[in-house]
Amino acid sequence: MRLPVCNFDIESDMLCPNCQAKLDRGEITGFDIQFSKWLLEKEKQYPSLDDLTLRKAAMAGTNLILVVNKNNKELLLGEETLIQELIEEFGEPIIIEGAPKLRRIVREFIAPANEVGVNSLWLPEGTKENIVMLREEDRARIKYTKEELRVIVSAIMGESVLFEYQDDRRNQEETIEKPDEFDEKMKEIGERRF
């Protein structure tokens, strides 16, 4: 089994310099380490896990997000008892195969709808924020709310992803004075001194 953290590090409860550097850069998280330890303990009970490559593990609300290599999803789903243990311990799993690409992930969660556009903003402190625009007429077709999509997709991508419906901005301008999250961010960026 390949995990985001070295197996030796998990067994010794100490990170090697390489894994510590990944943690410091934000490439892995404390949850990656915690989940990898849990999964490594299950390998003895489920020998098929030997072929699994886990790229990332994250929590998004009550969902466990697992990013695995291609063709590893069925390997996990084939172990019904393990899936039940995952649900009891961490929550309902959402399993993504392959390297997470923003458009592909967004399309997977909003299907059968399509996004109108995906824009990325690089903030002065070097962080990236993505904004996904959706069509108002697709609102009923998308099974997740904007907030659920934000939490899940941000957890998968490891960076901020906001979702907006095209009509939301127009309706907000017409009916309320309260700025939305995107407007607040843009105002905050504009007030920063460089």
Structure characterization notes:
By secondary structure, the protein is an alpha/beta fold. It has two domains: 7-97, no CATH class; 102-191, 2-Layer Sandwich (GMP Synthetase, Chain A, domain 3). 44% of the residues lie in helices and 21% in strands. The chain is built from nine helices and six strands, in the order αααββααβαββαβαα. It has helices at 7-12, 17-25, 30-42, 73-77, 80-89, 102-110, 146-157, 166-175, 181-191, and strands at residues 54-60, 63-68, 92-97, 115-122, 128-134, 160-165. A three-stranded mixed β-sheet has the order 1-2-3, with helices on both faces. A three-stranded mixed β-sheet has the order 4-5-6. Strand 5, helix 7 and strand 6 (160-165) form a beta-alpha-beta unit. Helix 6 packs antiparallel against helix 7. The mean pLDDT is 87.
The rounded Rg comes to 19 Å
Instruction: Calculate the terminal CA-CA distance, rounded to whole Å.
Output: 46 Å
Share of helical residues: 40-55%
Based on Cα principal axes, name the global outline.
globular
Count of the domains: 2
**Lateral arrangement of strands in the main beta sheet:** 1-2-3
* Tally of helical segments: 9
Q: What is the N-to-C order of secondary-structure elements (H for helix, E for strand)?
A: HHHEEHHEHEEHEHH
Q: List low-pLDDT spans.
A: none
- Average pLDDT reading: 87
The count of strands amounts to: 6
- Class inferred from helices and paired strands: alpha/beta
Q: Report the β-strand fraction as a percent range.
A: 15-25%
